[in-house]
Every structure is written in C-alpha cells, then in structure tokens.
Amino acid sequence: MPFGWRHDAASRINLDVKEGLMHRLYLVPTLVINVTIILIPALLTISLAFFRWDGISQPTFIGFANFQALWDDRIFWRALGNNIKWTALFLTVPIAMGLLAATLLLVAKRGSMFFQVIYFLPMIIATVILARIWQGMIFSPVTGVNGMLQRLGFPTIDPLSSTATSLFAIATVDLWHWWGFLCVIFFAALRQVPSEQVEAARIEGASFWQLLRYVLLPAIRPTITLMMIMTVIWSFLVFDFVYVLTQGGPAFSSEVLSTLAYRNAFYDLAVGKAAAVAVVISLFGLAATTFYIREQSKEMSR
C-alpha cells in the first residue's frame, strides 16, 4: 500500500507538471504576437525618440534634444491642452449619458433590445465614414444643416472653420459615436445587479435617482472605473475624426498629440520628434493603466 500510494502521488505530480507545461505552451503564440507587434515596435519608438532621423538617412543620436524641442514648441502645448480638454469632456458627458440611458433601459418594460441596437450602431460604422457624414449633413455650408440655417437667415458659422469651436465640433461627432457603446456596456453590467437589491429598494420607497445613486452605481463601480480608464487612454489616442474633419486646423486650434506626431513624421520628416510625442502619449496611457491596476488591487483586498 505505501508503495502504491507513492506511485499514485508521483503520477499525479507528473500529470500536474505536464498540464502546467501545456498551459504555458498555449500562451506562446499570444506571447510571440505581442512581442512582435507591440513590444518590439514600442522599444524601437522609444529609442527613436533619442535620435534625429528623417526616415531615409542614417539616424543621429541627439539625446533628449527631441524632448527639449517639444518643451519649447507652443504647438505641442496646445495639442496637449486639447487632449486634456477632450479627456475632461469625455469623462463627463458621454459617461453620464451612457449611465442614464442604460438605467432607463433597465427599468423599461419593452424595447430595450431595439434601443441597444440603435445606440450601438455608430460603433460598427467606420469612423472616416461617420466623419464624412457629419461633415456633409451637419457642418457643410452647402449641403448641411448649417448651410440650411444660413439660407433661412440665421447667423450661423461653420464650427469646423472657427478656432473657438473646431475642437468641440469634432468632439461632438466622436461623442455621438462613443456614448452608445458606453450605454450598452453599462446596461450589461446593470443587468448583473441582483434583482433582490433593486426590488428591496423599490419596496422601501426609493425614487429613481435614489435607486441609481445608492444601489445601481455602487454595484457597477468596477465597470465604470474600467470605462473611464479606457476613455482616458482613447482620448489621448484620438486621431481619425480630427484628421478627417480639420487635420488639426484652423491655426492648430484642434491639433492633438496624435495629429502632431503624424505631422512631424510625414510632413516635417522629423521621425525622432514624432517618436518623442508618441512617448508622451504612452506615458498618459501608462499612468491610467497603473491607476486602474491599483484600484483593482484595492477592490480585491477588501
């Protein structure tokens, strides 16, 4: 018996080792892909930030000169300020709209699936097409609503051509594109809240706003936190709507860090400076990710 017991134990240990090895082998393809398309390009970008390179000739090491050039560049600070404005706007308006709409869908008796499809529809349309639709149907002085109002005698201007409104006009397009996605995500999270808690609050006489504040929002706090972190990351990566609608103009009023990096790399042939801008963008994403990981660690330790 002792010998048989030791034999069975050894067999189980060997089986566990083999299973653990197989699990690690399953991770190899994903690891190779991530190293190839994420880690290596990221390291190359960081290294290029310390070189002067036009994309053709031999790179020249210049240390922190690219970062010093960004520090002295007023367009960089304007682009960074626009990204911060964009982030502040998207951390408030679309998240509030998504939460409110998701809560209304939760209490609705019928039609929630229909509205989810309608709200989510902009997310499955290419952003370039969405930008062109808004440009032609809303902003255009010839074919858009803006032009129709001008012909009716209203003193309107093209918001894309004004330095005071161009950034917010672009943000409106992206907001319309983004808030429905948040609504669907929040609605899925709200449906996981135990119905007993909701019914108990209703029996106690809780109003809609009390139900939202004291029951629903605390229950989906991890989802809200994740979406806010993703919003910060994507706000600093915004490129397509800005480039299609204004290319950062007029007079750099809607310039963001991504379009600035693109301009430096492909217009000015300052690849090293563009890489430095990319490093700055990555730092904000890294800060947001670190904050989320710390929040998750606190939640798990409670």
UniProtKB/TrEMBL annotation:
<comment type="similarity">
    <text>Belongs to the binding-protein-dependent transport system permease family.</text>
</comment>
<dbReference type="GO" id="GO:0055085">
    <property type="term" value="P:transmembrane transport"/>
</dbReference>
<protein>
    <submittedName>
        <fullName>Sugar-binding transport system permease protein</fullName>
    </submittedName>
</protein>
<dbReference type="Pfam" id="PF00528">
    <property type="entry name" value="BPD_transp_1"/>
</dbReference>
<feature type="domain" description="ABC transmembrane type-1">
    <location>
        <begin position="80"/>
        <end position="292"/>
    </location>
</feature>
<dbReference type="InterPro" id="IPR051393">
    <property type="entry name" value="ABC_transporter_permease"/>
</dbReference>
<feature type="transmembrane region" description="Helical">
    <location>
        <begin position="167"/>
        <end position="190"/>
    </location>
</feature>
<dbReference type="InterPro" id="IPR000515">
    <property type="entry name" value="MetI-like"/>
</dbReference>
<keyword id="KW-0813">Transport</keyword>
<feature type="transmembrane region" description="Helical">
    <location>
        <begin position="86"/>
        <end position="107"/>
    </location>
</feature>
<keyword id="KW-1003">Cell membrane</keyword>
<feature type="transmembrane region" description="Helical">
    <location>
        <begin position="114"/>
        <end position="134"/>
    </location>
</feature>
<keyword id="KW-0472">Membrane</keyword>
<dbReference type="GO" id="GO:0005886">
    <property type="term" value="C:plasma membrane"/>
</dbReference>
<feature type="transmembrane region" description="Helical">
    <location>
        <begin position="25"/>
        <end position="51"/>
    </location>
</feature>
<feature type="transmembrane region" description="Helical">
    <location>
        <begin position="211"/>
        <end position="237"/>
    </location>
</feature>
<keyword id="KW-1133">Transmembrane helix</keyword>
<feature type="transmembrane region" description="Helical">
    <location>
        <begin position="274"/>
        <end position="293"/>
    </location>
</feature>
<dbReference type="InterPro" id="IPR035906">
    <property type="entry name" value="MetI-like_sf"/>
</dbReference>
<keyword id="KW-0812">Transmembrane</keyword>
